[in-house]
Amino acid sequence: MIAIPDFAAGAMENYGLVTYQETFLLFDDQHSSVANKQWVAIVVAHELAQQWFGNLVTMEWWTHLWLNEGFATWLSYLAADDSFPEWKIWSQFLHECEAGLRLDGLAGSHPIEVEINHVREIDEIFDSISYKKGASVIRMLQSYLGAESFQRSLASYIKRHACSNAKTEDLWAALEEGSGEPVNKLMTTWTKQQGYPVVSVKVNNQNLEFDQSQFLSSGAQGEGQWIVPITLCFGSYDVRKNFLFQTKSETHDVKELLGSPIAEDNKSWIKLNVDQAGFYRVKYDELLAAKLRYAIEKQLLSPSDRFGVLDDTYALCMARKESLTSLLNLMAAYREEDDYTVLSNLISISQKVQRIAADAVPDLLDYFKQFFINVLQYSAERIGWDPKPGETHDDALLRGEILTFLAKFGHDLTLNEASKRFQAYLEDRNTPLLPPDIRRAVYVAVVKQATKSIRSGYESLLKVYRETDLSEEKTRILGSLSSSSDPDLILEVLNFMLSSEVSNFKILFELIIHNYIKKLAYYHIISLEIDIMSCVMRGQGN
Question: Which compartment or compartments is the protein found in (predicted)?
Answer without folding.
Answer: Microsome membrane
